[in-house]
Amino acid sequence: MHVPSHRSPYPPLEGTVPAPRALFVDRWGTLLEPPSEGFARHPSDVRFLANAVQALFRASRAGWQIYLLGNEDAVARGQVPLEAWKEIEEKLLAALARAGVPIARNYVCLEHPEGAPGHRNDSVYLLPNTGAFYHATHSDGIDLGKSWVIGDSTLELVAGWRAGCRQAGVRTGLALSDRTFHVDPELMADDLAGVVVELLTRTGALHH
């Protein structure tokens, strides 16, 4: 017996598919345990916070695009060699890939106006600048109004706010104790996993 497919053989008409939504996730203190020295020197410093990877996997399966973002001031200031940082980043991305977490784009800023030679530049990607968010919407069509920035410091949250994203803070890492900027996040959770559970619950995508 032939059961007809209800899937149209034609691509959807332009403008009929909702713009994708994203989670912009801070690295250190949100996804990863903060290094003991304050910045990572070696791939062994890549240690994921409890349930963080599983949370991103569930979010991606529910249709969220996952973006990483953050400043690597230690590289910009010459405290960590570029080659060492590349090894750290390779371990991070490889671990996420093995876990089935697709990273849409990896926004990391290695520049700073007071950085070492070769990195002494301002950048639209240097948080709290908004370059990462606007690049995602211009390049990938991300709907920033339906997207969230998730972080442990006020730096990334105020950047997301300036770009029109919704903000979620976590009580891991700095737990917003830096107070560099005044922020009042819409959502505050114990950790990244808690944020994702809440978002999946709100959207009806939480499956037990």
Give the helix/strand layout.
Blueprint: E1 22-26, H1 52-61, E2 65-69, H2 73-76, H3 82-98, E3 103-106, H4 131-140, E4 148-151, H5 154-163, E5 166-170, E6 187-189, H6 192-202
Parallel strand pairs: 1-2, 1-4, 2-3, 4-5, 5-6
Helix pairs in contact: 1-6
Please give a structural write-up.
The protein is of the alpha/beta class. The chain has one domain: HAD superfamily/HAD-like (Rossmann fold, 3-Layer(aba) Sandwich). 30% of the residues lie in helices and 12% in strands. The protein has helices at 52-61, 73-76, 82-98, 131-140, 154-163, 192-202, and strands spanning 22-26, 65-69, 103-106, 148-151, 166-170, 187-189. Strand 4 (148-151), helix 5 (154-163) and strand 5 (166-170) form a beta-alpha-beta unit. Helix 1 packs parallel to helix 6. The radius of gyration is 18 Å and the shape is globular.
The name of the CATH topology is Rossmann fold
CATH architecture: 3-Layer(aba) Sandwich
Total number of distinct structural domains: 1
Q: Which of globular, elongated, flat, extended, rod-shaped describes the shape?
A: globular
Radius of gyration: 18 Å
Count of extended strands: 6
Spatial arrangement of strands, main beta sheet: 3-2-1-4-5-6
Distance between the termini: 34 Å
Strand content: 5-15%
Encode the helix/strand succession as letters.
Answer: EHEHHEHEHEEH
Tally of individual helices: 6
Q: Summarize the amount of helix as a percent range.
A: 25-40%
The fourth-level CATH homologous superfamily is: HAD superfamily/HAD-like
**Main beta-sheet strand count, sense and barrel state:** 6 strands, parallel
